[in-house]
Design goal:
The complex is a heterodimer. Chain A is mainly α. Chain A is about 80% helix and about 0% strand. In chain A, helix 2 packs antiparallel against helix 5. The radius of gyration of chain A is 24 Å and the shape is flat. About 10% of the residues of chain A have low confidence. Chain B is an alpha/beta fold. Helices cover about 40% and strands about 25% of the residues of chain B. Chain B is built from nine helices and ten strands. In chain B, strands 6-7-8-3-9-10 form a six-stranded mixed beta sheet, with helices on both faces. Chain B has a four-stranded antiparallel beta sheet with strand order 2-1-4-5, with helices on one face. Classes of the chains: A mainly alpha, B alpha/beta. At the A-B interface, helix 8 and helix 9 of A face helix 2, helix 3 and helix 5 of B.
Chain lengths: ~300, ~240
């Protein structure tokens, strides 16, 4: 009881610290910027007038980010699954291999005709190679290039496409986040100890049920925090869509800045909106982490992912 | 109860089991000893088909289980297993660990399964720990939960893979006591262990394995007191010090 209260007090203090920190930083920046905008002063009226425009731009950012994020999650789950299946614990579930040795034939394959088995194993390996290649290519190239690439391909082949920039942008973000989420899923699935799979199978659980009741519940606990962080990262990365002319937060802010010459005000708004989104979201991540903690075990942090 | 006939197992180029044959009557406790890498764990895993033998037969209660028309899951339900590193499901508490098999494999109702799990946990001396998660339990307690988990499937036999090797010395006794009580109650068991006290008191027979083969087989006093084979003598000399 006392410890719960203490914890709540501590978390309230943490929130206060965060807000105070941001306020101080903003104050410091405002003080410095006053040297530059001091003569004209900060135009609050302008900011107020820009709210509806920025509201639409923010909706567009959420729209593009969310679509790409959930599309990428589908890709990521499959890619992560394919890449994790090579490792021993998952291989035991997915292919029922009787041992860790890769050359060994899975038991169900030994039952069917050898020709079919070879064909099937070929397909399986091809799928894995493709998943590997996809992740390597996407993680090895700048998101900026991927966005311009997608846009260029679309504009050359479908110049009359409606909302071409937005489509190109969402496609690029989807393909990009799919690779990163694939790595998150792979890491999560591989982190579940092979002994867990063995114990699940030893009490007679089928492959699917072992996945459903033993592997996934443990993997998801590890995956949720980095997966939510991926959303935050992707939302920030979506600012790159301005280069192909999508009027999301950053693109809109830049247009307005140069249309009205209220450069400082416009970018102050851009910055403020991102912070209003990302700070509460990262608090949510932390809350989710605490909520699903396994008693007696900490949550292992997974490495940060970068986009650009 | 358990019969193994001429089992062979290869891992890649490694020939791990080279024709193992033994027969274990109902209610008997068999202890397997041997140096690491001799194939003891693989042999255990072949019995419940966690590892599929390349050749040979595994017969449980008169039924050959390593054949295509029998689901390995079915075979595994007949034989429980207890692991060296406990392998309790980390996201479930002790009660849920024990009840998972009855609920998800046997389709038992949750209330009945949990009632059964409570009784089994009481049987291994953990009536007070039903709500504890694995990470909150000592090694000895975890291993006793693991034994309850195996018992929950009403197995015809239980396989123990070095159940006390990962334990701190002060917890070994409590686990061995539970195992001894099981054996006294007539549970058929195969135990890979280096606990000589347990082997002498509980096992009817001891197998000494080396390099994938059974080198010598006999009653505990024969194996420990008067080993016939050179390799058995060397190994027993080492573990008895």
């Amino acid at each position: 009881m006392a410890s719960a209260l203490q914890q709540e007090g501590r978390s309230r203090a943490r929130v206060f610290d965060t807000i105070a920190g941001i306020a101080l930083t903003v104050g410091a920046i405002a003080f410095v910027m006053d040297i530059f905008v001091g003569r004209s002063g900060f135009d609050f009226g302008y900011v107020q007038g820009e709210i509806p425009g920025f509201f639409d731009a923010t909706k567009l950012t959420f729209y593009a980010t969310s679509l790409a994020y959930f599309g990428g999650m589908g890709i990521g789950f499959l890619v992560g699954w394919a890449r994790a299946a090579r490792s021993a614990p998952l291989a035991r579930i997915l292919h029922d291999r009787s041992a860790l040795v890769d050359e060994e034939a899975p038991r169900w394959e030994t039952r069917v005709d050898t020709g079919v088995a070879i064909l099937f194993s070929g397909v399986k390996h091809t799928v894995r190679r493709i998943a590997d290649g996809y992740v390597e290519i996407i993680r090895g190239t700048p998101l900026f290039v991927q966005i311009v690439f997608a846009w260029s391909v679309l504009i050359v082949n479908y110049p009359r496409l409606n909302q071409l920039e937005l489509i190109a942008g969402i496609v690029a973000l989807t393909v990009n986040t799919g690779a990163y989420q694939g790595e998150i899923f792979r890491a999560g699935l591989q982190t579940v100890h092979s002994g867990q799979v063995e114990a699940a199978r030893a009490i007679g659980l089928s492959r699917w049920r072992a996945m459903r009741y033993v592997i996934l519940p443990q993997a998801l606990r590890l995956i949720i925090p980095p997966l939510t962080n991926e959303y935050i990262g992707l939302l920030k990365a979506s600012s790159l869509l301005l280069v192909i002319g999508v009027q999301e937060i950053t693109g809109y802010g830049r247009s307005e800045a140069f249309r009205t010459f209220k450069v400082f005000e416009a970018f102050a708004m851009v910055t403020g909106i991102y912070l209003l989104i990302t700070i509460p979201l990262s608090k949510v991540v932390h809350a989710v982490e605490m909520r699903y903690r396994i008693p007696g075990l900490g949550i292992q942090a997974m490495g940060p992912q970068t986009h650009v | 109860m358990i019969r193994v006939e001429r089992i062979h197992k290869h891992f890649g180029r490694l020939h791990v089991l080279r024709g193992i044959t033994f027969d274990l009557p109902r209610g008997e406790a068999l202890v397997i000893i041997g140096p690491s890498g001799s194939g003891k764990s693989t042999l255990l895993r072949c019995i419940n088909l966690l590892v599929e033998p390349d050749e040979g037969k595994v017969i449980i209660d008169g039924v050959q289980v390593n054949r295509p028309d029998i689901r390995p899951e079915w075979a595994r339900q007949q034989v429980g297993m207890v692991f060296q590193s406990f392998n309790l499901f980390t996201h479930l508490n002790a009660l849920e660990n024990v009840a998972l098999g009855p609920i998800r494999v046997k389709g038992m109702a949750r209330e009945a399964a949990e009632e059964k799990a409570k009784q089994l946990l009481a049987r291994v001396g953990l009536a007070a720990k039903t709500q504890a998660f694995p990470a909150e339990l000592s090694g000895g307690q975890q291993q006793r939960v693991a034994i309850a988990r195996a018992l929950a499937m009403d197995p015809k036999a239980i396989l123990f893979d070095e159940p006390t090797s990962a334990l701190d010395p002060e917890y070994i006794r409590e686990v061995l006591d539970v195992m001894t009580a099981l054996a006294r109650d007539g549970m058929t068991m195969v135990v890979v262990t280096h606990e000589m006290g347990f082997a002498s008191n509980v096992a009817q027979r001891i197998l000494f394995m080396d390099a994938g083969m059974i080198i010598e087989e006999g009653r505990p006093e024969e194996i420990f007191g008067n080993p016939k084979h050179e390799r058995t003598r060397a190994f027993v000399g080492k573990i008895l010090r």
